[in-house]
Structure formats: structure tokens, C-alpha cells
Amino acid sequence: MLLHGIFPPITTPFYPDGRVYLKKLEHNVERYSKTPVSGIAVLGSTGEAIMLSDDERKNVLRTAREACVPHKVLIAGTGAESAVETLRLTEYAAEVGYDAALVRTPHFYRPQMQPANLLAFYRTVADRSPIPVLIYSVPLFTKYDMPSELVIELAQHPNIIGIKESGGDAVKIRQMVEGTRSIRRSATVTETFAAVTPRMVKAAQSESSNVSGELVPIGVLAGTGSSHTGTGSVVRTTTDHMTAGVPARPAERSFASSSSVQIVGNLKTRQKEVGFQILAGAAQRLLPSLEAGAVGAVLAFASPAPTACYEIYAAWKEGDAELARLKQDRISASATRVGAELGIPALKYAADLNGYYGGPPRLPLLPLTADQKSEIEQLMADIRN
Description:
By secondary structure, the protein is α/β, with parallel strands linked by helices. The chain is built from 14 helices and 13 strands.
């Protein structure tokens, strides 16, 4: 699965009395669906997932999934302190249609979180998970920083496709990139090299009532080489040396593993080789992370400012280093203060300023003071979406 681009880890809206406000969640997801982000992460740290009950987490996952357009990748935060609880929520996320699971490092019993424990935890989850797994290292909250060597070892597992590295350390990202360079997997992409997931394939099939041409199973789209998926779903296949008349960029062309184009309903797909995919987690360090080898980011600051974060990624992707630096400088102070220092209450207020529903945090997090609100208004004054 391709995970390039920007993924906002969306907030969970609450009523003033603390109940989950599902209608506002729908509103936010519909609005994110109209931005240029590659997908949405639900129930991450920014989503106050640790504050929710099991039923609330399931309701949030289901509501966000139903409100999201088919062409955005959906990532579910499913990490818990035990492998058993992590798998329960991961299986539910897969059942309702999520594309990947974001699994944070267990940390409560920190003295016992040795390499053997983490290896066993992630391998057990990845072995049994019905959807691909992303490691989630967030030392700001867990006080546990996943070592590069451990990530490199886990990257060999075929169902562990990447990591969200929230530490902001470009040197560590470069180490992980170098250590996983030999890993090559096949991902299904569109004719413009955007991600394609099984959920998107199903949506494309349902939109097309007339399928003609040579029929092949959609297992081919997973890059497994299997001729049978057990679903009975089929696609058409054709051959094309360019994608709809648009040549791939040099980097993309070098990774295109086949000139074969599969057609699913009205969706043209092809295969692209990808490595172990590293996603940055600090907006104030996005550009250095991309330059170190990250392929995208899951950024708390993208929750109130998805387009501003995307513009950094887009400029970097186009090779415009000067513009990327300008876009990075534009948000760095705001991202540091709002996202890293003031945290969720500030991110929610910034979202309110930008047309999303932020609303109150859940106790023990406290609402902002009047002075803090004024400060955020100034920081966000020229960051609109």
C-alpha cells in the first residue's frame, strides 16, 4: 500500500458535556476529504483515543469511515497496551473498511519494554492483523523511543509496511531509510501514482455496472501474484507504456514495476515498487524529515492546517527546495507552539478558526485561557485552508 503524502490525524469532537459529537466528526471528515491530503488518520494521539471507551472508539471509526470519500486512505489508530486488545480494535477497523492500522508502542510497563518484548508484540499483531500495520513511535507521550535497529528488524515483516516517527529526528529517519533500503514491495497505484486500496477497488467496482475485456482476479492488485483472492472480484487488464498519456516523473518511472495496467470499473491501476515507508510526525521538522527519506507525514498540525502542510510536501515533491523552505518557515513557529507545546486544546481551537469543528477537549485536558486563544489567533492569522 502506498503511503506517500500528508495524513492529518483528526481530532475527536465532543459536546460540552463530554459526549462524542458524531455529527461534527462527519462534518470534519467531509471537509478533509476535499483537501489535497492523501488520507486521514483516525484515533491517533490527536484524536484523544486514550480518553475514549471501547464503544466510543468503534463509533468514531465507523462514523469517520462512512463520511470519508473512497479515494482517501484511511488509517485507524488501534494500539493498546496488550496485543490482544490491539488486535480486537484492529479487526474491527478492518471490518468497517480501514486500510491500515497505526499501532503505538506499548509503554506503561516501560522497564520491561525491551527489544524482545517489542519484537514479540509487533510480530504477533502483524501476523494476525487483516490489514497492514504501521509502527507508531511517539516518545513525547510514551517516553519510549523505538530504536532504529528495532524498527529495521521489524521492517522485514511483510505486514509491517512503515512507521510514523514522531520524534522529529532527521538523523534517525536517515538511519531507518538506509537500514531498510533493501526492502522492496509492490503497491497498487492509480494512473497518476496515487494509492489504491482494496476498499477503493470495491468502490470502483460498485460504480461500474459494465465490465468488459479480459477478466483477472483483484488479487493481482495486491502485488501478491496470486490468481485467487476468495472474493470472486475481477478486473480488466491492458498494456500501456504511459499512464493515460501522462509520463511518470523520473523517480516514479524508475519504480514502476510493470507496464501492465489493470482496469477496475472506471479505475486504472498499475504496480509500483515501494520500500519500508517512513512517515514524519513533527510538522515543524517536516522538510528535514522528507529530505532524510520520509515519504510523507502524519502531522498533528495538519489537523487544523492540512493544506499548509501539504504545500511543503508538494514543493519538495516537485524538487523546488526554495519554495519548500519558505512553506516550512511559514508554519514552523505555529506548529511548534500549537501542536507540540499547547497540544490538543490548541489544535482544536485552531481547527475552529479554520472552518473545522474543534470544540472542547475531554478532561483532564482543560480549555484554553483567553490569552492562549489570542496567541493562537495571531499564530494562525495567515494559515488558512
